[in-house]
Amino acid sequence: MDEATAADRSLADETYSSLLEEILSAQLSGGAVIQERRLALRLGVSRSPMRDALGRLEGQGLLVRNAKGVLTVKVITLADYLNSIAVRLMVEPSAAALACNMISSEVLAALREMLEKIESDPDPLPAFVWAFDDALHNGIATASGNRFLADIIGQMRRYTTIFERQRKLAQRKPGLSDHQAILDALTARDAEAARNAMTEHLEHIRRNVLSTY
């Protein structure tokens, strides 16, 4: 790969990451029309990396075509959300159990430090709360040692994250006791406890969302 091609690839990756974060954080909300030229100008990129990034997001189902063929941000419905949680319930407890033997003490210490900051802060920044949630769940998925599990968890978490953030369903300090139980089980290297703690956490999330409807 020559330098020009590598630079184009890097710029496309950066553009993709920027747009993905805007979708996950609800800056680009469900149903929003994607205006390629305007987005390219705002992000300061040419249309080539923008088209590459949009193609990837469309391929992942986060962008869809409406009846007129216009590219829009996918609206995550309650059914989408519940189906995503159902898939997570099938795979994420297993990932937590597998991670007990793989996740490092350094990662666990960093996660515990983040959780303690959230717990001690009367009004933690939502961005920091979401950063912890991402670090915990993505860290467990990666530490499972199973790339396929990690890919599925990552994809399903995108849908649940978009739904929660677009509808502002997350509490100021969501799932503190659940997250503590997961970290305790991982620290103890207790696979069954980690499996059960993750299952209980996801069930709590599902019930909390249903209670708002």
How would you characterize the overall build of this protein?
One of its GO terms (molecular function) is DNA binding. This is GntR family transcriptional regulator. Keywords: DNA-binding, Transcription, Transcription regulation. InterPro entries: GntR_C, TF_FadR/GntR_C, Tscrpt_reg_HTH_GntR, WH-like_DNA-bd_sf, WH_DNA-bd_sf. It comes from Agrobacterium albertimagni AOL15. With 213 residues, the chain is mostly helical. The chain has 2 domains: 71 residues, Orthogonal Bundle (Arc Repressor Mutant, subunit A), CATH 1.10.10.10; 133 residues, Four Helix Bundle (Hemerythrin (Met), subunit A), CATH 1.20.120. 71% of the residues lie in helices and 3% in strands. It contains 9 helices and 2 strands. Strands 1-2 form a two-stranded antiparallel ribbon. Helix 1 crosses helix 3, helix 4 crosses helix 7 and helix 4 runs antiparallel to helix 9. The radius of gyration is 19 Å and the shape is globular. The protein starts with a helix and ends with a helix.
Short description:
This protein is mainly alpha-helical. Helix content is 71%, strand content 3%. The chain has helices at residues 3-24, 36-43, 47-59, 78-99, 105-120, 126-143, 147-166, 176-187, 191-210, and strands at residues 63-65, 71-73.
What is the total tally of β strands? 2
Helix content: over 70%
Provide mean pLDDT, rounded: 91
- By helix and strand content, what is the structural category? mainly alpha
Widest sheet: strand ordering: 1-2
CATH-level-2 architecture of the largest domain? Up-down Bundle
Tell me the radius of gyration. 19 Å
Largest β-sheet summary: 2 strands, antiparallel
Count of separate DSSP helical elements: 9
